[in-house]
Structure prediction request, 692 residues.
Amino acid sequence: MSQHYRLDTKSQTLVLAERDGRMAQIVYLGAALPQAQSLADVAQAYEIDVTGGMLDAAPELSICPEASQTFPGQNGMIIRSNAGTLMTPRFRAHDAQVTDAAIVLAYKDDTNGLTYTAQFKAVGDVFELSARLVSDDPIHLQWLSAPVVPAPQNARDMIEFSGRWIGEFQTDTTPWLAGARLRNNRTGRTGHEHFPALIVPSVGTTNTSGDALAFHYDWSGGHQMIAEELPDGRRQVQFGNAPDTERHAGHTFETATLYVTHSQNGLNGCATAFQRHVRDAIVQFPDANRPRPVHYNCWEAIYFDHDIDQLKDIATRAAELGAERFVLDDGWFGKRDDDTTSLGDWTIDPRKYPDGLQPLIDHIHAQDMRFGIWFEPEMVNPESDLYRAHPDWVLGALDQPLGRQQMVLDISKPEVREYLYTHIADILTNYDVDYIKWDHNRVLPVADADQARGFYALVDRLRHDFPTVEIESCSSGGGRIDFGVLSRTHRVWLSDSNDAIERLKIQHNAALFLPLVVTGSHIGPRECHTSGRIIPIEFRAWVAAQRHMGFEMDPRELTDHETTVLTRVTQWWKDNRDWTSQADILRLNSDDPAVISEMQLAKDGAQFVVFAGRWAASDQISPRPIRLDGLDPDALYKLSLVNSDEADKASRIDTGLLTGHLTLSGAYLMSHGLTLPSRFPNSMWVIKGEKQ
Ligand code: DGJ
Prediction:
């Protein structure tokens, strides 16, 4: 007896097959199948033969592979009884709920009193998968995978993500080999080190062509990924919360959501599905029609040295450059003159703000800017009133190594959340706060799922009570970026690196998942504080203008030239943000490794902008043509350089784009590509395209 289930997104189909009451298998996840396609035949075609060296039947690669089925790889669930004995569940079909948008399959193991439920949803062009385990008796959970997805066997490699502080979103290409590739993030946060995602590109896939299957797991408490090739050649991908982060026996355990999307249009197909999903289905802006405001963040201008007159002067200048929101960063509370003290003491420092924050906020409002403020709620310095009063609120041992001089509060404790809520709510109630920058500057002493749940509960309560306040997720830059945090916040601080060269690379890779509207990007000080590099203002400005733009330098350091460039680029960003905020970011193939290029293509395809960032000198003399993506091959596009006035001495003749515009077909632009004028390194050409 077999059951078959089908779920369709806009351009993809997922087929589940359940045989003889055993756990279902995903027997297809790929390009949309015709409605006439027999699901039974798809299931049949998925079966592998039995031959020498195998069991008499190939164990199913089910949505939760079971040891009881003699599965030859990593199991989808590892649990122990309350007494610590390893359990070997054997699930049988119990219930199925099917709608056009969702399939929910429930399985029971009566002997052990267990119910496993898998949920599959089709939203936009993304599948959302999650699993839940309920036990009659308390049990210990070591590992629970979201429904397991088979990976294509026509892939030679997988693309993984790693990184570090000021070097987020690095990509690694790892080969598929026999056995398991395992990423186990023990940091207790999403982390710079292990962005929870995987892309499986078929052989030959590029940014713009070929098949790819992409995954993202939306848990902010640290994940585990297993990508395994079985002895018979089948491959499985598992994602779940990092193992052993459920620290107590319990009755109910759930995975976070695993987002899966398949593309036939290269990596860009996956990237745009995720970007749209985040923008249209995940992030909940308090006012969706409000344009993203240009930011000013004072951190790299003043650090802990808060002086209200200087801040007012900075605010006036930031507004003149075009800023629309002023964010008061770390240093306004307790006695925080450096990072050794006061986290946890969320009261305004009267030495710095004798009349509270109102005089500064009034000034900011008078400049037509809104006001945002920094918190790091989950942390405490041993040198603080809070720690002295409540050392018992700390997570982990008191003699643990500190991280940035601080410890983590155990926010699974309701009284800790209550304390934090009260202090944050106090500021939000007493002042007109438009925005919170929510920081988290160290890893946890122990990875604990309750900590992530406590964080979610605190944010959710604040959002419920202060629904107009937007929140930025920051964690030493990009240490807490995932779709789970983005369902509760509105912007991510992608990196503490404001170095335009580094930022160009980081945001290029982050675009595989993140749309412009949530991706913060700032212009930092002339001499970059994290690299020491001095980079021309033009390049710094355009790199920030590729995403949600902001400034973070001290505007008092700016020369007239820098002020002119910044004001002009900011105005360009504002003039275009209505459509760029809704645009797809398409990563362009890099035929020249010295140039990182992308397109932002308007929703209606009527216009686009190309950013071609030259971060190094090329091996060859002249720039290589840049091949575009996503255009109508038969349409003509009028192309012009937005910043032709930035041409430098590298270019000695006036080519077409430097002096005027060119009209070229989509076919030409996508197959031959656009040849740009020569330019010195650390520069960006910005090209506008309009469909004729
Ligand atoms: C780390 C953040 O990433 C910075 O932007 C800044 O907010 C500091 N923390 C403040 O301590």
Observations:
- The radius of gyration is 26 Å.
- The chain has a mean pLDDT of 97.
- The first helix runs from residue 39 to 46.
- The chain is about 20% helix and 30% strand.
